[in-house]
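User: Hi! I'm a student and our assignment asks us to look at how structure tokens line up with a sequence. Could you show me two examples?

Assistant: Happy to help. In each example below, the sequence comes first and the structure tokens follow. Example one:
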Amino acid sequence: MSTSNRLPLDGVRVVEFTHMVMGPTCGMILADLGAEVIKVEPPGGDKTRTLPGLGIGFFRSFNRNKKSVVLDINTPDGLAAADELIGQCDVMLENFRPGLMNRLGLDYASLSEKYPRLIYVSHKGFLPGPYEKRLALDEVVQMMGGLSYMTGPEGRPLRAGTSVNDIMGGMFGAIGVLAALREREATGCGQEVQSALFENCVFLSAQHMQQYAMTHEPPPPMPSRVSAWSVYDVFTLAGGEQLFIGAVSDKQFVTLCDVLQRPDLAAEPRFANNALRVALRPELLARLAEILKDHRADQLSAKLEQNGIPYAPIVRPDQLLDDPHLKASGGLVPMETDDGSITDVVLLPLTMGGRRPGVRHALAKVGEHTQEILARLKSRVTT
């Protein structure tokens, strides 16, 4: 990214018909990178704005830097306005249930006849195939795609602790947009891009699929796995604090023993190399647990960092709001919300030319930009 105020996607216009997480994530990435992203909401606003419980943070997390337009696309006037607005945009995003956009005439086949340069991005549960008409949720595809099996203990499949497929599905949608924009430069034509939850989850499980293809043994769930490294675990320290420690080479194991002032452990011939230690892993971990139970996490962490041993405290999401690295590196910044309050939000996990694409606008209120956007339409439709 250049040192000017120009962003990579300046001049690109995106209209999104999305809700929940997957489609909004795609739109937010494009918006953060400079595109003008127009979020079309139904009368009363996207219901994601008012989700309770674990969904309460969805809207604030995935809808920054966008404009909000209210249209009732179930009415003739609203549908006509949506159609004309799409025609003024480079990219259209949608993530509604299969068949809905076809019924409204807002499917790719219908729109591409009128707008051949349009890049149309569908975020669905499944790519075309036997499952394509099924409704899907992140949890559904985690069960189907091997992720829940690999995450939980044997016999107890467990979903990951966040919406991994929704978020990554939106990322792949954005990657597809960038590729399609580049291809349009050469061909002059748009295209349909499809991103799907199930295929995303299978992509996450691909390494385990190859493990089976190479060994002909089904991979055990992560809690039951045979670790490739002898010291790669969570230990309980003084006061009940927990710390993950990973010594993944012979040199790191020797260094860890020195840090713990137990060079005798490293000197035992039975622990001379990683393969020998893995074979005796339960015994080794028990001995390390006994040594570590009297160490304070803050003091040990400083020594591990100084000596280049990978480690990590067990951190809750709420504690990340005060993480010194996130704050100092510019990855956690304030944003004005739709109710006028201020909240810290997490930026895209990348830098371009040393800069973090950041928050440019307050979170849009429901319909805040309706008049501005509809004034550009020839029909000047009001809703």
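Example two works the same way, sequence first and then tokens:
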Amino acid sequence: MKYFLVAGEASGDLHASNLMKSLKKIDRDADFRFFGGDLMQSVGGTLLKHYKEMAYMGFIPVALHLKTIFRNLNLCKREIAAYVPDRVILIDYPGFNLKIARYVKENLHIPVCYYISPKIWAWKEKRIHLIRKYVDRMLCILPFEPDFYRKHNYAVEYVGNPTVDAIAAGNFSTESFDEFISSNQLASKPIIALLAGSRKQEIKDNLPFMLEASAAFGNYQPVIASAPGIAPDFYRPFMAKYPAGIIFGATYRLLQHAKAALVTSGTATLETALFCVPQAVCYKTPFKRLFGFIWRHFFKVRYISLVNLIVGKTVVKELFNETFSTKNIREELDNLLNNRKYIEKQQAGYREVAGRLGLRKDLPPVGASDRAAGIVFSL
């Protein structure tokens, strides 16, 4: 069959590429065209637009690039119409993908699958009406999402979490600490991992504070995990005042050896928890008073990190908006490195997160990508 996929950022590229691999296992004639990235391209098919030309976040960047966004939307519609796929598969990225879903259902009448639900449980809940109308099958990766959709009388499939699969598939424990620091030109000191986000604006906002806070711990070395698609030179100015190591394309290897981590909210918080690394979530927000108003009146959740959202309680401290500061990050990092009871309590929360994601008796013994591919193929 022919599949058209749309992924608008780095995490979508990763999950879509694994889904494509799973589809190829059950459909020998699988043919792909897609908006996505390098990982999807490595699986095979035709890359029509790279996510680097699509990933705009926040009101101002979106407003400044409206012409490009509409151009990409029109190009995507034309390519789907010309390709006439058997399935359209949309990965997260709702501002763009829900418009594509509407076009496909109203004009082409092709089945639409959505892999990785938009976070409408956090905000913009009204998008449920678009999903009901234009999405044939929603495939969720977070265990609380089916309950959310059930209350809106919309049936979804929970397929498991692909992050669990990705970590389980890697054989990271065979690499020693000495081998890791030698292959990455790092110092012979324990590591504080800095995961400052996947977008340039996130990195600009968060990394300087992370570096300043970690500099207080001279017996440790801060090591930055570079984001996919971000050039090495982008990080250099931040490292001029507070020297740090940096690794490229090896975030999981870094987490395997880190003693603690400072993490910007996102999938990275979950990855860090599954590696059992003590962490603090650090997220700088512009216009604190305005954001505080928006958070109180428009967001439907109590937490910003997936770790806390999955278990519905505070497992990792979230330093954002009013609580985001170098001083608070430094104090939390001290607990993560030196307070044994504090660390053990967080580790117990991590075990609860892992249990909710990976020990589901109602799921067959296959990975999330394989299960999702089976549903897409049989739709």
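Here is something you could point out in your write-up. The chain has a mean pLDDT of 89.
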